[in-house]
Amino acid sequence: MTTGPPIDELHFADAPSVDAVPGPQTQALLEKQREIDSSAVAYPEDIPIAFEDGKGATVRDADGNTYIDLFAGIGVLNVGHANPYVLEAVHEQADKFVHTVDFPTEARLELIEKLDEIAPDGLQGQNKVVFGGPTGSDAIEASIKLAKYNTGGDGLIAFRGAYHGATTGAMSVTSNKAFKERYTPLLPDVVHAPYPDPFRQDKSPDEAVNHALEEVQAIVEDPYGGLANPAGIIVEPIQGEGGIVTPPEGFLQGLRDIADDNDVVLVFDEIQSGLGRTGKWWASDWEGVAPDAMTSAKALGGVGFPLSATMYHEDLDTWGSGDHAGTYRGHVVGMRAGIRAIEYIQDHDLLAHARDLGEYIRGRLREAAAETDRLADVRGKGLFIGAEFIDTDGHPDGDLVDAIQQYCFERGVLVWTAGRHGNVLRLLPPLVLTHELAETALDIIVAVIEELTAEATQTV
Ligand SMILES: Cc1ncc(COP(=O)(O)O)c(C=O)c1O
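ok -> C-alpha cells follow
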C-alpha cells in the first residue's frame, strides 16, 4: 500500500439503508447505557444510535442500518472511519510500542516534522510543538500557560460564542454561561469580546469586524478597559460550537496587529477548524494570518485516537524542563495515525476536494434557502458548513433544527447542530465524502427541510 485506496473505495456500498430506527439492538444498548453510564452522557439524547462499524464517510449501527455520516465524531474523522492507510500503520505501531511519555520515538519526531510541513506561514520553520495531554482542552490549557509564562500577565481575551473545552481554564475562555455556571470560580481575569457575526449582529461585514476589533483594542489598551495584565487573546478562526460563525476578512489580521502592538500572545484554536476541515490546512490560512500559538486535536489522532498538540513560535520556547507536563504527552499509535492521516490528505488532494465539495453543499443549501424564509443563512468554508434557521418571527428556531436532525437520522443521514440557540444545522463530514454520497445526503436533507418548513409554516 502506498497512500491507500482512492476515496470512492472507502465506504459501505449500501449507505444509506435504514429500517425503522432505533432498532431493537440499539434500543437495548441505549437502555443499558441509561442504567449504568453517567448521567452526563449527552450525544444519544440528540441521536438515539449505537454504532457498530464505520467505513469512510459511512457508519453502521448495532441493527445493521447504514448511514451517511456528516458529523464525523464532531470533526474528528477527517480521513474517514477506519481509513485503511492509517490503520495499517496503527496495527504495526500498536504491536511494537504504545506509550512513551515524552521519550523520543520516530513517530513523535516525524509528526512534529509533518506538522511543520503544513504549518501556517509565520510558524513554519520556526515553531515548537508541545504534546501535553490527549484532548483539545489540554491543548487550550497549554496555550493559556504558555501565554502566562511568556508575558508574566494573567488576563485573557476570548470571544462571545466561543467554545474551547471543558477543563477549568478552557471553560474560563468558553462563553456559554450555562456550561460553566456550576463550576465557578474559574480563571478570574477573562473578558469576552464580541465576535464578528454580520448575520446575527445585523451589520455589514466591515462594521462587524470594526466593532469587534474596537472592543478588543479597548480591553487591551484603554486604561479603563478593565483587564489589568493581559497575557493573550484566544480565538477560533471560525467558531464551531458557536454556529460555524465565519468572520469577515480583516478580523484575524486586526487581532494580529493588536497582539503585536501590545506584546500579548495570539492563540488560534484550530481544534475543530484545522487539519483540512475548511479546505486549507488551517482556517487561518484563508486570511494568511499566523498566530503565536495554535491548538490542534480532534482530527490529529488520524482515525479517532485522542491526541492534541499546541504549536507555538520558537521565540516562546522558554519553558524549563517539566514546566508543562502530563502522563500522556503523545500517544505513539495516535502519532503514527496522525502522520498517515496528513499523508492521505496530501496524496489524495483532499484540501481541494473539501473546497469543491463544500461549495457544492453550500450551493444546494442556498437553493433550499431560496424556497423558504426559515433558512436564513448558509455559511462556512470547505467542509465546515453551517445553515441557520429562524421561525416565522425571525427568531432562532432550535426546535426546527432538532426536527431536521431527527428526520435525517430516520432517513439515513447523520447531521449535527450548533449555535447558541441550537438553531444551526452543522455539517462536518469526513473529507473523504464523495460527490455521489454528498448528492444523496443533500437530496435527503433538502427534502427534509422542504417537508418541515412547509409543515411549520402551515401550523402558524
Ligand atoms: C474549537 C474547540 N476548541 C476546543 C475543544 C475542546 O476539545 P476536547 O473536547 O477534545 O477537549 C473543542 C471541542 O469541541 C472545540 O471545538
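Residues 74, 135-137, 140, 163-165, 236, 240-241, 269, 271-272, 297 surround pyridoxal-5'-phosphate (CB under 6 Å).
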